[in-house]
Design brief:
The chain has one helix and no strands. It has 45 residues and is mainly α. It is 96% helix and 0% strand.
């Protein structure tokens, strides 16, 4: 019984971690795109 409960909590933690890291990754990609666009603009000026 205790093992099943612990496994359940572990899987929930892993799912939560994946959701959070996906959000962070999306924000990182957006920031990288913005920086790239900014560098292109600086070069063209």
């Amino acid at each position: 019984m205790a093992m099943a409960r612990r496994q359940f909590y572990t899987s929930r933690c892993i799912i939560h971690f994946h959701k959070t890291s996906n959000k962070l990754f999306a924000v990182y990609m957006k920031t990288a795109n913005l920086m790239q666009n900014f560098n292109v603009l600086k070069r063209s000026l």
